[in-house]
Amino acid sequence: MPLNEVKELVEECLDESCEHLKGSFLTHLPKYLVSVKQRIIELKELEAQLEDLQSNLTNMSLTNPDEKVSKKDCCEVLDQMEKITKKGGVRIGRQTQS
Q1: Burial letters for 59-91: b for 16+ Cβ neighbours within 10 Å, e otherwise?
Q2: pTM
Q3: Hey, where are the domains in the chain?
Q4: Which of 98, 1, 91, 14 has its CA nearest to residue 46?
Q5: DSSP code for 82
Q6: Can you give the pLDDT at residue 74?
Q7: To 10 degrees, what angle do helices 3-15 and 18-59 make?
Q8: Is 34's pLDDT higher than 90?
Q9: Is the model's pLDDT at 10 over the cut of 60?
Q10: DSSP string computed for 19-75
Q11: Which one has a higher pLDDT value, 4 or 13?
Q12: How high is the pLDDT of residue 73?
């Protein structure tokens, strides 16, 4: 809930009747519930993507484990991280070296 709206509700609490305050809460709560539910969905999707990444990295055998990332055209670890960004998950920047 944005602070300005909390302030308005506090002012209503001091200036208006309990019935008016109840009505204000009932007017505002549905949009906050929608927002919270959407965020929960997004966080659950992110959780699943990160669990997949963890599992993939745990089970991955690197072909050249001692080679520096900057010397390789493609790093398997970065490839796994990039997969979740293509699924719409966490944005992880990756710069290519020239």
Answers
A1: eeeeeeeeeeeeeeeebbeeebbeebeeeebee
A2: 0.59
A3: 3-86
A4: 91
A5: H
A6: 61
A7: 160
A8: yes
A9: yes
A10: HHHHHHHHHHHHHHHHHHHHHHHHHHHHHHHHHHHHHHHHH---SSTTS-GGGSS--
A11: 4
A12: 56
